[in-house]
Write a structure and sequence with these properties.
Length: 385
């Protein structure tokens, strides 16, 4: 009996669909057993992969880990293991950059199975009760936040990624240069946009990640709108909650410039300890295939990476309209840096942003500390003072 072990994160979007695909794969392939375990969302995003690669065969992974993993030879490069037809299928039929985000330095980190990106969400019943509409512009979003009806996740990593989105909207590019994280005018402008947005939001946002906000929005009537948080389509499903969310497009800046969020989602990587790479890859491709993604994966609570699932009207009905409403932002999102050292930066550089939004740091000091942390992430061991 071949036994493969896998690790994912702790949510109904993550574990149940993988258990379902593993069960079906075992039924179709005698002599194989696939066991999935889970860890917290924070651990999924930020704790190093080293130990996991020594303990698990299948690792559900986010694309920014590519540089770290390949620099340490922790996972298999899947590119030479796929046929040209398989690569073409994944590239052409994955939603947005869900496949290309795993390509780094000519190597392939994982097979995409899940797609997400920061996308605004709301309780339509509460917006209507307050006489409000889904905000289409930055000014409309500010008005909603100032009225106490809009929040955003304030965890350091979430703040950093949403700041990165605003930097891009202002014309900057994250991590393009070794000394400065981005153009200073764009970086400071994005800081101010975030600060102004958070000005009237409750202090509790700094304790909330996307899952916490989605839970609060669907368990209470306290929050009408979330400005942007990594999408969790489960909360749109009437079968999942009796107070479902609706998603909608990101607002435009007041000068008309669009926002493009930062792609998330996950793929399955194969650790170097995996006892049967061919079988493990076959299972990963099975899980990421059109038939499974638009079938048991989504029906078990998953948020698929395949475009076939996102465009299936019957699935969209099951998902409470999530695929239709979140699709534009998912198709048009940006890929994060993937160099070795980047992943800790998301949290490290988010700390001064959080302090700035709370009024604990000046704009000058915040900008300095973001860049100091950035230089450390690129291998500059000089520390900030």
């Amino acid at each position: 009996m071949l036994e493969l072990t896998g690790i994912t994160w702790n949510h109904s979007r993550a574990l149940p669909p993988l258990v379902a695909t593993a069960q079906r794969y075992e039924e179709l392939h005698t002599g194989v057993r696939i066991l999935w375990e889970k860890r917290s969302l924070h651990e999924f995003g930020h704790l190093p992969i080293d130990a996991l690669a020594q303990s698990f065969d299948l690792i559900v992974i986010d694309h920014p880990w590519a540089g770290f993993c390949f620099a340490r030879d922790l996972v298999h490069d899947l590119a030479p293991l796929l046929s040209s037809a398989q690569c073409a299928d994944l590239e052409q039929n994955s939603i947005g950059p869900s496949f290309t985000s795993y390509l780094y330095g000519g190597k392939l980190l994982g097979i995409p199975i899940d797609a997400a990106t920061p996308t605004p969400s709301c309780r339509p019943d509460l917006l209507e009760a307050h006489g409000q509409k889904f905000p289409e512009t930055w000014s409309e979003l500010l008005a909603l936040a100032d009225a106490g009806q809009a929040v955003m996740p304030g965890f350091p990593a979430d703040l950093f990624l949403n700041w990165s989105m605003l930097v891009a909207a202002l014309g900057g590019e994250i991590a393009a240069e070794p000394e400065l994280i981005c153009d200073e005018t764009c970086g400071r402008g994005a800081m101010e946009l975030l600060r102004r947005l958070a000005e009237k939001m409750p202090a509790q946002i700094y304790d909330w990640n996307p899952i916490a906000i989605a839970e609060l929005m669907t368990r209470t009537d306290d929050i009408a709108h979330c400005a942007f948080a990594y999408s969790y389509g489960n909360y749109c499903r009437p079968s999942f909650t009796d107070r479902p969310l609706r998603y909608g497009p990101l607002p435009r800046l007041d000068d008309g410039r669009p926002l493009r969020s930062i792609v998330g989602g996950t793929g399955i990587a194969l650790s170097k300890r995996c006892p049967d790479v061919a079988r493990a890859l076959d299972y990963a491709l099975f899980t990421g295939s059109a038939a499974i993604q638009a079938g048991i994966y989504t029906l078990s609570g998953g948020q698929p990476s395949r475009r076939e699932a996102w465009t299936d009207t019957a699935l969209d009905s099951v998902a409470g309209g999530f695929f239709r409403e979140a699709r534009h932002d998912q198709e048009d999102c940006l890929i994060r840096p993937r160099y070795d050292g980047y992943v800790p930066l998301q949290e490290e550089a988010g700390v001064p942003l959080q302090q700035y939004l709370r009024g604990e740091l000046s704009a000058d000091r915040c900008w300095e500390e973001i860049n100091a942390r950035y230089r450390v992430s690129r291998g500059d061991i000089r520390r900030w003072t």
